[in-house]
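Hmm, how's this folded?
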Amino acid sequence: MQLTRSTDPKSRRARRIPLPRSRAVWAAVLGWSALNALVLAAAGDRLPFNWPSSTGRTTTDHLLEANIGLVEVLLLMALVRLLTRHRRRPDIAARAPERTQALRETLLLLAYGAAGLALGHILARSLGWHPFGFHLAGTLYGTHEQVTAAEAVTWALYNVVVYALLPLLYFRRYTAERLCLRSCDRAADAVLITTVLLVESAVQFLVLKPEILDLGGRQLLLGVPLTFTLYLVGAVLPAMIFIYAILLPRILRLTGSTPATVILCGLAYAVFHLWDAWTRFGSPGDAVLSAAFLLLTYFAPGMMKAVLTLRTGNAWVHVWAYHALAPHTLADARHVVHIFRV
């Protein structure tokens, strides 16, 4: 089927609206503020989550950490804007089909993604494991529950097949460039990747002090590449393909707004972590707090990945600059070493 570019004004390059005038930005600011107020109103001194890495911390401590994380992401976004200010902006909206088809494909993707999450829950539970989402149980926050090597490998294979391989097969009629999988400027992308990776790694080491520093020589030698591979297959590639290579251009085509696209991709990224092992949905109060902290945890990183893709036209940039190595390899190596008994 031949794909043509529409002459519809909404299909042209996304509007460059100053951020203070963007309704999407103001909606995000109000929403983030409401989340903070909701948590303070609904939670007591302690949150109902299984977070071994945060034992003894109060609700206020967690909120402060989430807001500091947002500020760090906003500063990284400003850095990306600075580093890419002289680059020619790729017309990513033009890489999506005309609006009617873009809407149809977007709705199909969202329905398919919801089905993938539902099937991941049913399949994993039937095997006695944690539900399959974009993160393996114990990621980032740790867990007191057992995670087996079989669960970890099956989680990774399920995610890469459902959210990366099958969508790529379905959308194979689009070129690599139209799927944001080809670099427009490799040298500039390399500089951006290196800079963001160094800054984010410095933050990880200086502020978060990842437990990778506690691993021995053999554990580092075996555990680091194992962690990198496991999370590349199970978390990084699925998010990159499904959200940033396929969904992002269609959202941009439909909204015609870069800020709205960044915000919606941040929301989508948070939703696909619905089954994180620490979430609790046994009561309305726990469900509200789980939804709130899913957004507080993943909304900002999801936006950062969208900004890197929009500024470069290359979804691979965020993989190496802000996902596969930092935070996952740094933050989760100890977890993987424990799972595989390295």
